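re the bet — no i am not wrong, look at it urself. input seq straight from the record:
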Amino acid sequence: MLTIHVGTFLCLLGCASALAVNRSTIEPDHNWKFQFPVKASTSYVESTTEIPMDLNQFTISFWVDDVTDNYIAYFSTPGREIQLYYDRIYTYVNRYSSVWVKRLHLFVNGVEKYCDNCLSPGSRKHIVVTWSGTADANGVGSIWVNGRKVFSFSGLSAGSVIEKGLRLKLGQRHDSSSTYSFRGEIMYFNVYPTYVTTSDHVAKLSKKATSDSEAVLSWGSFIGGANGDVVIYPEMEIFTQSYIAVTCRSSNMTLTLDRSAFPHLIPSRASLKDPSCKVVADDNFINVTTNWASCGTVVTYNESMAYYTNYIVPDILNPPDHTSDSEETVHAVINRGSIALDESRLFVTCKYDFVPHNSIAAYAVSSSTYSVKGKGARDFSFGLKLYHDSSYETAYREAEYPLHADSKERVFAQAQLSSSGEDRISIRVEKCVMTPDSDPDYSTHHNLLADGCAADDTVQYHDAPNSLAQRFSFEVFRFNERPTAVVFMHCYIDVCPSDDEDSKCKSGWTSCATESESESEGDAK
């Protein structure tokens, strides 16, 4: 799940007046959410502006994170011209039995339609309510939850209009019943003068965070309308999904910002950590790309992940006074990347999984059979290859696996981590296990390498081309238990910082004893 850490935020309790916020150049507008901490008839949010026109059709789009409750009011107008609420009721199935149902009630101009078990409270969800009262539409409409149509109807207030001048109230029914008062969070409530019918349109509405210019009653209309115990907080999770995109490639990353969501950012004065790495902007978007080894990009890694982090400085004339590594901590995940926001920087991080294990069908002895299957590849991929001889000039082609080899013939292997120009990482082959089956945990096995050292008397190490590769060779053998089986090689690697002189990768196989004792647990010859 996506979570965003915001360095500073504003919290207003029981406010009904407009907000006065000193915003930084990186901070977006209208990325707020209303939190209703308790059920109370005095707690609600009312639009500060009125519906400006008569509506013979409408679409309402909003996000909600409601608590599990039997009675929930989402929004209303004084005369139930528009109203949506939920309750759990006991209803008769027939004259002999009855059941509890979860009922969602929709009112348009005082007329009701409802659906049973089409919505469940207790989670974050995107809701769309759409209706058309035009003469030829016959009062049709639908309700969508998280992109799925859960209810369709017709004959609801056909031929009528929602009259202009109404204000919507969030979190209460028309009668302000405390029983139905909302508890949870409401975000990005927008009313449109259109009727929607497709899932694509609904999906676009789910990304219409903040204040939408196409709405006749937009989210910005509610910001100053909080009453009672309602609290207002910055909202970043949905916002980043809507307006920020991170693209992580094999050798670089690109951050794209929707300019409409960052009205205070001045493109001509924005850069990455390195001021020479400027952003590129058009009328709609701001883009910036950095290679892994440039623009001040920092790399951190552990045995399974690599993290590449940079940040946008929104105003190079006022650079951030932050230098500690602790302030460049990853706080949130978008796709394969991360976003973190503080008052003067927008962090972006791409993370990549190391593939710590790889298997190949190494070789076959007489009478072996094998069928080849395809494999996928990742940006950071650990691969095993076999070569013709100790020069390592020519690798066997994929179609040539498994090799057909005789006992005691020497096989030359190379293990390599592929990472497009990365020179800040080194590897060590920690273990290689040979099995007569594709399962690396097969009961019959023979340890070729263990704890980074040779576990087979025939293993010889060879010089590698760089810190991301390791080369070794060994003599072919067969398993007595399955003498005609294809022999599979399964190797595992350690990943280390290349500048760490004390790492196990730096010492590598040179730290191993001259003579290795075999730790074979299978009967090999």
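see?? Confidence is low (pLDDT under 50) at residues 1-27, 322-343, 365-379, 514-525. told u. also The CA atoms of residues 249 and 379 lie 7 Å apart. so pay up
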